[in-house]
Amino acid sequence: MLAILPAFFPAFAAFLIHAAPTPAPKTPPKKPAQAEKTTPEDQLVAKVQAFYDQTKDMSGDFVQLYTRIALSKTSESRGTMKMLKPGMMRWDYDKPEPKHFIADGKQLYVYDPEDQHVSIDPQFQLSDQGSSLSFLWGQGRLSNEFRAKLLPKVDGAPAGTERLELVPKKDATYTRLELTIDAASGQVVETVLFESTGNTNRFRFANLKTNTGLKPDSFQFTPPPGAEVAIIRR
Hints:
Layout: H1 11-18, H2 40-53, E1 57-68, E2 73-84, E3 88-95, E4 99-104, E5 108-112, E6 117-121, H3 142-145, E7 146-151, E8 161-168, E9 174-182, E10 188-195, E11 200-210, E12 228-231
Parallel strand pairs: 6-12
Antiparallel strand pairs: 1-2, 1-11, 2-3, 3-4, 4-5, 5-6, 7-8, 8-9, 9-10, 10-11
């Protein structure tokens, strides 16, 4: 079951729950003789980075559209999500059927109520999900990991948003990531991950709230009585 986790996990989510502001240098850097010119892409990337650097927790609703090219089929799922630094997340799928992905900062639980089955990965680390995405775990910066390009506006896009294409500079299991970003704040409201297989994984977010004081208790999970429990061994 854990093999399908990347299809249920948008890239920026890992960024949120693990990213931390870059530590200040011990000695002040020398002032450049002339300010470096920045492109619109650079400015938008910096705004996104700054927004998630200062975000401690986030919650909201999501719609996921996962398209499998080989089957010419798009499946839609809906639910709610919560995240809390460091390393805690909760994705509660409501439709088409209930399913829960919960990381409490130490291990991952995948609970399927219909089958009454719980998978537990006691060694789960989000950093294991993709070595080329070091910025997601607070070990890098967007500008260091990706080549960024502004994309044209599309019909139906939310007002006040910009679209940004991110292409990984290193080998990855996907070819590019497209973000729809609130231009005023830098908050991501939609992500589209283009996998190397040709499949696409789109998440649209609504009712997003940040820094509301979520507690670790919200990310605790105990397998219900009678549920079959499987421990993932590595």
